[in-house]
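During the reporting period the student researcher (J.K.) took over the structure-prediction task from the postdoctoral fellow and processed the backlog of single-chain submissions. One of the processed entries is reproduced below for the supervisory committee.
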Amino acid sequence: MKHARLILSTLLAAAACTSARAAEPVAQVRVTFDRQHILIRDAKGYADVAAQRRITVDDPARIASVSKLVTTLGVMRLVEQGKLNLDEDVSKRLGWTLRNPAFPDTPITLRMLLSHTSSLTDNAGYWNVALGEDIRTLANDPKAWDSAHAPGTWFRYTNLNFPMVAGVMERAGGERFDRLMQRLVLQPLGLHACFNWSGCDAATIARGVVLYDAAGKPQKDDLHGKAPDCPVIPARDGGCDLTKWVAGQNGTLFSPQGGLRISVMDLAKIGQLLLNDGRVGKTRFLTAKSVQAMLSSHWRYDGHDGDIGEMDEPQRGSFFCSYGYASQQLSRGDGKSCRDDLFSDGRLHVGHSGNAYGLLSGVWIDPQAGTGVAYFATGVENAASGAHSAFSAIEESMATGH
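J.K. obtained the following C-alpha cells:
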C-alpha cells in the first residue's frame, strides 16, 4: 500500500510539474555582454526534464532562425575570398537555372536570397527534401514562387532562401555545408556548435537542450545524451549514406535556415564579433566593410513593399520592418502596422530572432552602446503577445531582463 501511495504521489507531482510548465517556460537562458566581457549570466529551468538536468549557459540548443545570421558569416568569408559574388546570378554557381517562372529573365542573386527579396516562398516546403533527392523538386514547383512580385522588389521572410544559399556555398567551397561551416566559422571562432549535431563532440551533444512545446511535450533533440542516428532526413529507403552527397544538390540537408546547435555563451561571441567590426581579439575574422554590409538595412518597410509577418507562423509577425543580410534592424517600424521595438527604447538594435519547436531565441547588439544580449527560452508559445511590440511577452522579457 505504501508503495502504491508513493507511485500515486509521484504521478501527481509529475502532473503538477507539467501543468506548471504549460504556464511558464521549461528553460530560460540569458547572457549580456559588451565588446570584451560577459556581463550577466542567467539560467533557470531544465535542459532535460526527464533526466532532471538543469539548464546552464553552456548548453547548446537548436537556435532556430538565428542560424541564418551565422550561416551568413560563412557567406561573407567566401565573398572575401573571391569565391562568391553577392550580385552574381546564383544559377552560375548552382549549375542549374534558378528563376521565378513569372519573371524568367530576372536573375536571382545572393544579395536577394540573404535579404529575403528573392521572390521565393515557403509554400512548397523548405526542409522536406530527403537525402539523395534534389532541391530542384522545390524550385520547380510553382507554389515556391511569388508570381506577383519580381525578384528584388518585395520582402517576404522565406526559409527556403537559405537552403539555396547553402547549395551555392557548397559549390563554391567544395565541401558539405556542415563541414564548410565548421571550417569557415565555427572552429575559427572557437565555438562548440554545429548544424544538426554534425561536427559537435560527445561532450557537447551530452549537454544538448531538449525542445518542448508550450504543453511541456518534447518536440526536438530528445537525444538522451547521444548523437542522432542520422543528422539529416534519411533517404526514402531509410538509409543515411552521406558519402553520396553531391555539392549543391540538396542545401536543405543540414538546416542552414534553423539547424544550428549553439549555447548562449557562444552566441555572445557572435555578438562580440559584430560589435568589434569583425575582429576576435587581435584576429581579423571579417572586414569591417563585410560586417557593415551584413548589418545595414537592405530593405525597409514603406507600407506596401513586403510582407512583415512569418509565412508559417500566422499568429506571429509584423516585426519585420527593416532587414539586412540575415539581420533585423529593430525600432525601425512605425509602431502601428509594423511593431518591432522589442526593447521599448526606440534605439537601434541589430541581430536576429528565432522560433521553432517551442523555442524562442535572439541575439542583439546595440552598436552605439557597445552592448548586447543573447537568449533562448523553451516550452513557450510564440504568439505576438508583447506589451510594446509584435514579439512575444517572453521575448520582451528576455531581451530587456525585465
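The committee noted the following: The longest helix spans residues 2-23.
J.K. will present the remaining backlog at the next meeting.
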